[in-house]
Amino acid sequence: MKIHEFSDELSSESAAPGGGSVSAVAGLLGASLSSMVANLTFGKKKWLPLFDQMLQISQKSQQLKDELIQLIDADTDSFKVVMEAYNMPKKTENQIIDRTSAIDYAMKEATNIPFKTLKCCREIMDLALEAAQYGNPNSISDAGVSGEMANGGAHGAALNVFINLKEIDDVTFCTEMNKKTHFILDETKTLLIEIRKIVAKVLNNG
Fold this sequence. Notes:
mainly alpha; elongated
């Protein structure tokens, strides 16, 4: 699906794709930018000592980008499964039991998808920070945008985790997922502060 087709579908009355897919898009854009900064650094003679480091950033960014591309559709597909579960018949006791079980399974999977997106975005922020610290200073703004996009993707994914947890009765699952999500968000907040400091320093002293 091309970007204008995606945005048209996103802006329609259809409930999916939604915020979860958009969060994955934000993350993959961040990954693409961190890869770009690395690619604009290695291969240049004066940055030859950084070749292995930049190559690793580029390769890891591409890996995360590819994973997030899959998560765009996975998020939409998981929502469809949730809707199918809610639409199951509930006239008999057995039907109610089956429907409840199906909803529980579908909601947990619909929560796991944005949590995966959150973790990917968290990893991208590490790469964006490294790209800002050691990458081509002429691309410092791109490293900054990489971090900003990954942070946006992380927070968007977390919002989708939290809203799905409201529909899950499994207290143990919800408590653990809530704890892990907040922990990662705290890490992304710290990373974003560091990225912004580095970007501001280069831009102000350039």
